[in-house]
Amino acid sequence: MSKIRNILITGITGFVGSHLAEYILKNHPRVKIYGLTRWRSPLDNINHISKNLNLKWGDLLDPFSLKEIIREIKPDVIFHLAAQSYVDFSFLAPVSTLETNVVGTANLLEIIKQLKIEEKYNPIVHICSSSEVYGQVNKDEIPIKENNPLRPASPYAVSKVAEDMLGYQYWFSWKIKTLRTRLFTHTGPRRGDVFVESNFAKQIAAIEAKKAKPIVYVGNLKSVRTFMDVRDAVRAYWLLVTKCIPGEVYNIGGKETMTVGNMLRKLILMSTRKDIKIVIDSKRLRPSDVTLQIPSTNKFQKATGWSVKIPFDKTLEDTLSYWRDFYQSKSG
Fold first, then answer.
1. I need a labelling partner for 142 at 20 to 30 A (CA). Which of 5, 30, 197, 205 fits?
2. Rounded CA gap, 238 and 306, in Å?
3. Which residues contact 94 (CB under 8 A, 6 or more apart)?
4. Which domains does the chain have, with CATH numbers?
């Protein structure tokens, strides 16, 4: 596509959004970055780069403010990352999850459609879906390809199916230049502590800081995941909007596959404490779970030349260091 001058990131204060902004600032410093954020969103993840960002206060559920923001800045690319992304919470609050993820995405796409008609504005729009849309796959469907059946196993996954299909529909019906990704398990520094890798790392860091007993509480350790670093993911997102074909969907995922239990054992081996025990907490078990997620990323690699660069051990070390720094700052 033509030269990218400015971009808008929805969800810029979140985990992936903050890493994407960081990546673009470092590698494409001439690109002007705008971020959509709600007034109540914590800014911790972007405080270190905030002076180089242009934040816009708005809400995906308020189409009036959203339209004014997009009309004002006319971004060449919109990375739509904002979402209620916690699977467990979606079981407790399915309506809120659907409203945020589905209605919010529909508002965004509808506004772009209106501005295309009114002002011939036609940006690239990245719709961030999720590997959760595939649900519980059969063993003979591994590795999972983009044409695999969608069997969402949580309200969150249902919302992501809807987002995904809205992205396709607005391309098919209105030729809005959407690109959809289905991102598999990813983690790294600043990952929220409700997500399994970060949660385990935080528990271990708390034990090392003598803030907790030497016990890591866990849910289902038998689930199989292919893990990747968020910093590889955001590099993939940039390649997506510069090299890929609108209307298409792409899997993005890592190459190191293991059970959640083996991932935990890696973290424990990195700890300075050698007396850590593992205890199952029934509250951490989901009503339904997705236990086998191994992606085929051939389509995306062929389109962009992307490949994973960061070893997963490095990802885990950096995540553990992030939580060690967190407890050190609390005690200082």
1. 197
2. 10
3. 155
4. 6-187+228-252 (3.40.50.720), 196-225+256-292+310-331 (3.90.25.10)
